[in-house]
Amino acid sequence: ETDGVSTWTGGGNSSDWSDPQNWGGVDFVQYKSVVISSLANTYPEITKGIIDVHNLTIQPGAVLTHTGGTLNVTGLFTLESSVDVNGSYINSGAVGAVLNVEGGNVNVEQVINNIDLSYVISSPTDGSTADNFGGYYPLYYYENSSDSWQPISFSSAMTSGVGYRMWTDDTMVNFSGDFNIGSVLVSLSRTDGQGYGWNFVGNPYPAAIDWNLLNVTEESTIEDNFWMWMPTQKSYGSYSASTGIAVNILSSKIPSNHGFLVKVKQGLTSGSLEFLPSAQVANDAMYLKSASSKPLTSHFKLAGISAEGFRDEFAVAFVDGAVEGVDRYDMEKRFANQRHLFELFSLSGSLKSVINSVPNVGFIEIPLGYNALQTGTVGVELVNSNLEDAVVILVDELTDEETVLEEGGRVDVFISQKGVVNDRFKLRVSRVVTSDASIVVTEEQNSRIRVVVKDRNIHFFLSEPGSYEGFMICDVQGRVIRSGALSGAQFESLGSFSDGVYLIQLFNSEIGSVENVKVVVY
């Protein structure tokens, strides 16, 4: 509409903005004001022609894609933000996709959920300064060589692709300047003894990016992982590309205006990360709020739950080709070191990991450590698991208690030692691995074991004596009733039991095998 406001609500037979069908048959050339609504059932794409708009607004969650043709905005170009999501402008960076707008007329909003917290942000434009945020507080960039945050002046422009720490008294901050449209190369450094390989970078585009679409490979100078500071939780989220597992966050997507951490590989003194326009995707979330994802990699997640109820996650992934020491599938834990958190980690060799990738075996014991800045009762919860026929047991080395973790269930433990503790707990995981070497288990017997119940006593016979070193017996609620070592004889007696259904697990940790047999005592 040349003299009013046209609101894009989707519809028509094409997603091409220059196709009049999308506008109810109106053959437009020039518009006074256009609002792309977050309620649209489809979103426009400019692929050709010349589009003239005076004021253009993209609501939170709405998307404008620009792959060809010219978009002229003579007035204000506004990307709106809400607590949940930002608006997105995706410019493919192609030679034929031209945007003409005055940088001073660009307004990219970012909601600040809580003005009492610090945030790590990144500019989608080339002209934003601390003055854009009201000029109350300076911006800080992370200096790897000194492991410290350094201020920049109020009038200094934010560097594209760099993450900045900030405070503000405003619940909405604004970026301005020309949009970053092409590729952005960021130089990184590693200073052992100071910042090691950690570098704060930032999404340079006015849309989300998918880490998996960046050209990070095994040959890259950085690890194929990222870490995200979540201000409202005061903790870190993590994503591992090698396993596809996201911990404390949603997925591999990094929203617009967000800064995050990457790490230069050990043994190098420098590295780089190139942001590509082709990695852009629509914003669909904000890391001011977080949730869990469920990738294809076989895994389970635990959450440490503090006395205040804050949660911090840790994951174990079962990966073909992984080893029990450090390998490329492991991801380092980034500690928040906050009193309100109970942070779990595992030891992968000498690495304190947030994702510990272990061999795809049937039985394994995994060391589980914690970081706590206060004593008291905390919880350990099995958040979710996509493992089939698996039992996860939390072993408390201090109290000698063993507890089967049920999905969604919580175990309370008392923490008497503050700080980083490597050896308080361990996880014992037994599962049936699907492979040519798998054992087919029937209700009460299989080819390797025969179980006999007489006078409520459980006995079993092994066709291959000495093939298993230990046993564990659980009831139907998953509680460990009895466990111990096997003698290596052909005949073993496990003792007397009350009426009920039990799962007997025999394991050999040396070769990573496990066998399950269900038995009924009556």
How many helices in DSSP terms? 0
Assess the beta-strand content as a share of residues. Answer: over 45%
Task: Give the C-alpha Rg.
Answer: 28 Å
Compute the number of strand runs: 43
Distance between the termini: 81 Å
Overall pLDDT: 84
What ranges have pLDDT less than 50 throughout 5 or more consecutive residues?
Answer: 11-16, 18-29, 288-295, 432-446
Helical proportion, percent range: under 10%
- Morphology call: elongated
Q: Could you give a short account of the major beta sheet?
A: 11 strands, mixed
Which structural category do the helix and sheet elements fall into? mainly beta
Task: Report what the structure shows.
The protein is mostly beta strands. 0% of the residues lie in helices and 47% in strands. It contains no helices and 43 strands. The strands form 10 sheets. Strands 26, 27, 28, 29, 30, 31, 32, 33, 34, 35 and 36 form an 11-stranded mixed sheet that branches.
